[in-house]
Amino acid sequence: MATRELTTRAASLDELxxxxxxxxxxxxxxxxxxxxxxxxxxxxNRCPHMGFPLHRGTVxxxxxTCHWHHARFDLCTGGTFDxxxxxxxxxxxxxxGDDVYVDLTPRRDPVEHQRGRLQVGLERNISxxxxxxxxxxxxxxxxxxxxxxxxxxxxxxxxxxxxxRGLTTLTCLMNLMPxxxxxxxxxxxxxxxxxxxxxxxxFEPRFPLQPLPGAGDPxxxxxxxxxxxxxxxxEGAERALVSAVRAGATREQxxxxxxxxxxxxxxxxxxxxxxxxxxxxEALDVAxxxxxxxxxxxxxxxxxxxxxxxxxxxWRNPVDLIALLEDAFERLPEPxxxxxxxxxxxxxxxxxxxxAEILEALLAALRAGASAIELASAVTFAAAMRIAxxxxxxxxxxxxxxxxxxxFANAVEQGLRRSPSRELLRGVLDAAMSVHLDRFLNVPAxxxxxxxxxxxxxxxxxxxLDKQQRVDEAATLVASYAGDPDELVAALGSCLLRxxxxxxxxxxVEAAVRQHELLRGTDDxxxxxxxxxxxxxxxxxxxxxxxxxxxxxxxxxxxxxLYEDVA
Length: 567
Ligand code: FES
Prior knowledge:
- By secondary structure, the protein is of the alpha+beta class.
- It has a domain at 8-102: Rieske [2Fe-2S] iron-sulphur domain (Rieske Iron-sulfur Protein), CATH 2.102.10.10.
- The chain has 24 helices and ten strands.
- It has helices at 13-19, 110-124, 127-140, 145-158, 165-176, 185-200, 218-230, 234-246, 251-263, 272-287, 292-296, 300-305, 321-330, 343-352, 355-367, 372-388, 398-418, 422-437, 457-464, 471-480, 485-498, 503-518, 527-538, 545-557; strands spanning 8-12, 21-26, 29-36, 39-44, 58-60, 63-65, 72-74, 90-91, 93-96, 99-102.
- A four-stranded antiparallel beta sheet has the order 2-3-4-8, covered by helices on one side. It has a three-stranded antiparallel beta sheet with strand order 1-10-9.
- The protein is elongated, with a radius of gyration of 28 Å.
- The relative contact order is 0.08.
- It binds FE2/S2 (inorganic) cluster.
């Protein structure tokens, strides 16, 4: 006679057969016992999709169908036929006489399971699946790096045309993640991962190229890389780049070759291209440089096919900024060692001077001892000022014009902090010209907010952003805040994460927070956050539907019932 192995008695078989299904509570589990012909099954009574009680479902030919969104589950294995749901947890059953026994032993590793589900969510672009995975993975790894790597690996492989908006969103939010409140961290990853999925959906995958056979010389490969990008040969450039990685090019060499190609032409794609290059490097800092061949190989197509501002009217007429820049590049002095004191004056010249005057002021600053980073920081600050003083009477779309310049300038500065080069220094001058071109956005310039009583700013800001266009009030609140700046950053992050994703708002807040941190302890430290608050207020409130999906996942994870009448 066979020996029964299961010890937890769940029900009477006669009673189960009489009723067809029973709901029992065992060791904290709510279990649905079902019969289908002679077979007896035990499954978790909460539908893995959104928790609807499965004892209200229908069984037919071994398939249980939930009545809420009609997800179907194989009762033998628990496997689902509907990927928006999840595998149903089933419990092994034994019957002895009139007694039904179930095995409550955990059978799967929830973290490993959610790693798999994250792939499903990314591949099929299902936000709720991504949200559930992000919550479990961040609980297991509060740094978020595990889930970030999964999103990065997926994103760089998934789109034939390479690095894209979604990967930039993911990296921006990963940078913000340690700066937001603990309860917002999984939401930050969720937004980033979901944007990767959304931005990859419907595209052909990328098939990576192998490096050249044999050893290569990184310096020669870097020259070839720039030459191939110049003639818009993305495949040639990719092969040179992955060969440089294989040849052992250092991180600085790789950054230099990418930034050089990103500044061989002016302000590629309104600054997005260099910003994306910088974000790819930041992604490697987080995920690990052993991924450099896969991640960096997503960049050559971007670099090769970007619009070059030499071909745009605004950079050519009525003043030929390209000619002025090329002349300035010829005369670019070696940067100084720092400690230069002309920042405020240079910022004012960038904001209000003519193009030739601005370029001469930049060259003079270098000759006066300004370091490349000091110069870049002044230009980025001027770009932030354009947003901080952007009047709401402008066309709404022009918020983006000012934003593009700011994020480009920030990326150039971050790149110079990573690996300074004469080539990338050209980007500082490009950024200054873009700030100059944006001068019409500050006519008339909005006054910078005066600090008022800062009491309650952290609680008032979310309420203010429940209403449209409270741009100047938000700036005043941020200007007035007198508490811990980390809490102010976290509050801005929290307001950002409750809105539906707006790529440019995410870029703005991330760049502003980075700039704020670089300027901590100076008189300029608050201005980037004022700019971010104004931009955020101009783009809030949204429908907040994406956060609602996340909150559903969070409630399910906590074991809450989504429906009032669920027992
Ligand atoms: S399919 Fe069951 S809750 Fe949605």
